[in-house]
Write a structure and sequence with these properties.
Shape: globular
Helix content: over 70%
Number of strands: 2
Number of helices: 18
Mean pLDDT: 89
Radius of gyration: 23 Å
Oligomer: single chain
Order of helices and strands: HHHHHHHHEEHHHHHHHHHH
Strand content: under 5%
Length: 438
Amino acid sequence: MLLLAVPVLGALASLSPAGFAAALALLAAVAALVLAWRHPVAAGVGWLCAVGTTAEMWLGDLLGPAFYQPIIAVEKGAGLILALFAVLRYGAAADWYNPGLAFLAMFATGLAHGLYPGLSLAESLRSLVGSAAPYAFSFARLPRRWAQAIIRATALVPLINVTAGAALDLAGIRPLFVMSGGWRLGALSHPAFLGGFALAAIYACLVELYREGRRRQVALLGVNFLILVLTGARAPLLYATAVTALTLGFVAAPAFPRRARFGLLLAALAAVPPVLAAAGSLSGLRLFNLLDHDADGLSGREQIWAWFRAAAARSPWVGWGVGAGNHVVPQDSRVVRVMHTWAAHNEYLRIAVEGGRLGEALLLAAFILWAATHTAVLPRAERTILRLVFLAFACHALTDNVLISTSASVLFAFVSAVFARGAAEAAAARAVLPQVPP
């Protein structure tokens, strides 16, 4: 096929440079699809690393701002294609409580009710794809090898992001730290996104630490916490600390005995006083600057929330359709000029606008049932950790865009991988049980 394409590309190059470029891009896309089909594990890890390094940001810096949205579309589309390939290769799973189905129901309800003024059908459909895509892998019967690779890659994504970001900083292409209320580590990403990736990585480290109990997992856990602190992302740090502390304090596992758990927990507690004592001299970093000046502040979020409450009140039961949250706050308003964002930073308010009370109740029920049914087959330690993760996620949704951010794709790919590994191991255990005659 490639040999046949050579004369065609040569003819196009002589006749039309634009046609040659399009044909070359098409050939590259076909080659990528073939490789993804033949090597699904490597493709999944590669996609996760591309998302976890926010290719739209660093590649957008190199190619230009016009490529930002197309690269995001490619990332989302690639994830859906990989999920489809997984279904075709490994078989489909009847994931009836998948949260993606709740977004589909909200989309249909929004069309029946009428979309928010200014929201087009194409925009709503694009938002539906972006909202449902993070959960698509759970519709496939993923093998243990795929799941294991994704979990380990999730734990490494922030380190990859920072290492590559340091290389670009040294090359003078993109700064490693940015100034936003103090210095924040952004690396290849925005600091908030990197904080989300570090949060997912910490959860992955905990799951693997309780499964294997290796020192390298303790070290990687510490590295991810350091990255999270340097991003200045307060809420992710709070929930990462809470989940880690509760896990180390109360969750037992043979691979990670009490003495090791308590030793790690005491070492972390012993580090708190020196860090707090040094907070004054570290005020140049965003996290310590906020601790000094705005420890309990919401960074202006309450100004945006007023717009969302007003929009939700105008259609309280069924909302205004998926994607309406992007149109609630006028982009030329004062709050956008001050905060440089029109996103809700509160998923409960955003879903209230897009799906109303019925859509919000449906999505919450889907998440609860999805988590409960899939974690039921996990080993006890992993079951407890994942349920703590979902509880922290529900709290985190009060102040951040945890459902629509890029980091959600990494988090829920990791969650789907843990679910799939647990299901595969449970099926293997049932297969070796002795058959009892009737």
